[in-house]
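Comment thread on ticket #2218

A.B. wrote:
> Attaching the input chain for the structure job we discussed in standup.
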Amino acid sequence: MNGLPFLPGNNFRDPTKQNFHITQTLGYKNGHRIPKHPEFGPGGDRLNFNQLSETELALLENYKPSLIYGRAKPEAPDNFVPATVAYDKKVLRFFGYFKQTVHESPSEFFRVRPVTILYYLEDDSMQVFEDPVENSGIPQGKLIRRHKFPKNDQGQTFSWKDLNLGQNLSIYGHTFRICDCDEFTTKWLESEGLIVNPPESIPKDPYIESRRKASELKTYKTKTDYDKLRQFIEMDRKVLRFYAVWDDRANAFGELRPFIIHYYLVDDTLEVREVHKANDGRDPFPVLIKRQKVPKNRYNVKSTFSSIYLELSNEEIKDYFRPHDFGMGQVANIYGRNFTIYDMDNFTKAFYYQNMGVSDFAPLRDENVLGTKNQPYAKMEIPPYNGYGSLEDSLQNCLHLVPEPPKKDYIKLLENQHKVLRYEALMETTRLEDQGRKFIISYRLSDDSVGIYEPPMRNSGVIGGKFLEFSRVARPGSTPDSPKFYGPQDFYIGAVINIFKHKFRIVGADLFVLKFAEEHADQFPREAIESLRAHLGNITGRVDAKERNTINIKRRPGDFDKIYNEIKNKLKASRITNAEELRQMFLKYDTDRTGYISKENIKDLFRKVTLPLDDDIIDTMMMEAGSNENGKINLYNFVKFFE
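C.D. wrote:
> Ran it. Output below, let me know if you need it in another format.
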């Protein structure tokens, strides 16, 4: 709209503008008429300029504050503060020293005594302190009391303007050297316009320094030469072992011979041992070079040495073999023989890695140095087992010219002595006359042998007794040269054992079998242990339901008398010799004092004194002693068996 001519129809009226009056510019201020410049124009638009008029500019030329207000009054002086208040507890501290001459002393000529000079600004007084030194023998502390120090004979005293670093201060005939000051003193002097000199160091007192050195802990440096005692203590029983070969094939009938070089770190000696093989055609002398210090060149001696009647010593030979002269692939010339090192043991490798930084220990495999590998010697073949005697006895005849008895595992014999696993078995056969035959299979743990006993049965037509002597039984299918024998893990309920072409099916077991299997669960299959538990009446493994699954054996007449005598002997061994002691043993089971005890009480008592627990023996005793209608035995009649 600004570019259009100001003609009717070309203007635009702003509806927001309502006030078109002229702004008031005349007013009063402090009782005076004062015009002011308008800030807003008609319509409320702010004016962009505010320029003084010519009249105002003329008035400003003649404007002087002093003509209107008068001259400026002087500033009020500060309140008077005395020096005792303004400089209260403000002290300048300087550090210095003075020298004291020492007479008639050959060890010292003067002493340096450090001091602290204090300057009190409140009254311009000074004070000198000597810093305490331990065991100095001199009175220390306050040297000069606090007062104004005289500067000269005219009665002038020292002022802070006379104090600066690097200056001498003469007080009562003593010359004090000012060396340093604290931070407050430096800042205060600089604020007063005084240039502070650079600080100096206080020299050390020769006497105090000599005494300090004498009281210090003395240290000694060990000799650079290797200490033999230390070498003996640290290197005792430490031997480096090198595997080397001596190539003598250049000479007639020469060959490549293996050797072992031992280097003893305790005294830097070495020995060379020859490695012998069977039938190598050489005398079995173990040591080629005895243990000694071997020189690198024994002929490098002076021509004046009389070798006719003198032996070489450390005076003539200085250079001996050291560990750094040996290494993988190196050649060591020992008394004119070149030994090539092709390998070393683990301790030697660790020694070279820790002490010499060697990390490459690859064995030497050069055929030009080590030669080709010889054909392996023929090994003796063990002939097949001929069936005479045991397999172990026959093998000893093949291994030794003079046969030796086979070695036994005595620890196994002692640990498993008198431990026998007993099983009840039935013969598996198609013959009618052998069906139903019962056997007792005993497995002896001390020597892994198996024995079979057949209890005699009346009117069976078979003579009972020992069926198989204790011996090791091989499993079917194993070869005679390397037989595999039956073990305790092969016997379990339901297993079929083939013993010398006779098959036996396990149908029962002793309680000790289950206990042994549970104690050695790692040797038995899980199925075997579960079958034993199921058979003995407790799946959980705690034999509570049946104390024992006994095996009834048909006994001959007179067997009970032998067993009675055995029971008496065991009771005597337990120091139970009279009927009253036996009666006291059984009375604790007769709680109601009726005079009768049960079969379980008798078995429990027999178990405690390790007596036989066969049910047929106990039943026979109960029959002869008599029992009541509840199946309990008469206690007094039962004790008579052992009187």
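A.B. wrote:
> Thanks. Noting for the ticket: Residues 83-212 form a domain with the PH-domain like fold (CATH 2.30.29.170).
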